[in-house]
Each structure stands twice: as structure tokens, then as C-alpha cells.
Design brief:
This protein is α+β, with helices and mostly antiparallel strands. The chain has helices at 20-32, 73-84, 112-125, and strands at residues 11-13, 43-51, 56-60, 90-99, 102-103, 130-135, 138-142. Bound molecules: tetrahydrodeoxyuridine.
Length: 160
């Protein structure tokens, strides 16, 4: 028997320590929470994707009375980015969440389904997505992309 270890690399930034592009992306994710439709959870999540030509695409969570029919902010954003700009790789994705009128203190973390979609987007464009997770107490930046957050992935290689 061998024990195998997965090491997860991420950085903790203050907002002021981020470069201007990252600050802009965080601002866009925070602004996107305002369009969230979350009458059931009251958790208003926003996401912003930076595309290869500098365009920023925003999205948010959209809930439904039939709960599983709703969708998370990350998938709304990535699916829209890919639908509207299929020729432009996604370089970075920022996420923020607001509850009771306040942004979460801890950085919001994407759910498993959204991590799986991020993996597919990375593989489609052959490049990692920098991931920025906003919280009022700090911002996690994951430079290595989704593999840091989703080890032992299921992907198209298993379907061949
Ligand atoms: N949600 C997101 O939009 N993104 C996340 O990263 C976590 C969860 C949404 C789904 C649902 O509308 C609400 O937050 C509560 O789970």
C-alpha cells in the first residue's frame, strides 16, 4: 500500500494587493450578485469571466421552485461566455457571494458540478483558468486552475 498525496496550491490576497485586472474582475463578480435570482436560498452569487481579448462576461445564480432546475453563478457565466464567444478562451473566473446584504467573510467556493464544468472549459481551450474566490476577509487566487480544486478528475479520456 502507498499513500499518495495531492497538494493544493493557492494564494491569499487582500483586495489592494491584487493587480488592476484582477480587481476589475472581482468588482464585476461582486456587481453580478445584484442580478442573482435566489428567493429560496437568499445566497446571491455572482461570477465574472475574463476572456482572452479582455472582455468580461458576468453571470449569477438563477433558482427555481423545482430546486434542481436552478443553476449556479459559475455555470451561468461559463455557459454564456462559451455560447456568446465560443472562439475566446476563458482566462480567469472570479466568484463572490452576498447574503443578508453582506458579502461572505470567507471566500466562496464553487460546488462540485461547477468544478466539473470548469474542467471541461479548460480542456476545451487547452489552458487553465485562474480562479479568484472573493471573501471580505481575503481573496483566494488559484493560479493552477481547476486541477488544484478537483483532483482525480473524470473527463472525456474515459469515454474513448
Ligand atoms: N451557488 C452558486 O451559484 N455558486 C456556488 O459556488 C455555490 C452555490 C448557488 C446555488 C444556489 O442558488 C445557492 O447558491 C445556494 O446553494
Amino acid at each position: 500500500m502507498k499513500t499518495l498525496t495531492h497538494t493544493f496550491h493557492y494564494q491569499l490576497y487582500t483586495y489592494d494587493e491584487l493587480c488592476e485586472t484582477d480587481r476589475k474582475l472581482i468588482d464585476a463578480a461582486k456587481a453580478a450578485t445584484r442580478g442573482s435570482y435566489a428567493p429560496y436560498s437568499q445566497l446571491h452569487v455572482g461570477a465574472a469571466a475574463l476572456l482572452s481579448d479582455g472582455i468580461i462576461v458576468q453571470g449569477n445564480n438563477q433558482e427555481n421552485a423545482a430546486y434542481p432546475s436552478g443553476i449556479c453563478a459559475e455555470r451561468t457565466t461559463l455557459f454564456y461566455a462559451n455560447a456568446a464567444h465560443p472562439d475566446k478562451p476563458v482566462e480567469a473566473l472570479a466568484i463572490a457571494a452576498c447574503s443578508g446584504g453582506e458579502f461572505t467573510h470567507s471566500p466562496i467556493a464553487p460546488c462540485g458540478a461547477c468544478r466539473q464544468v470548469m474542467l471541461e472549459v479548460e480542456q476545451r481551450y487547452h489552458q487553465p483558468i485562474r480562479i479568484l474566490l472573493y471573501g471580505t476577509e481575503g481573496i483566494y487566487v488559484i493560479e493552477g486552475g481547476i486541477r488544484e480544486l478537483l483532483p482525480l478528475t473524470f473527463d472525456a479520456s474515459f469515454l474513448k
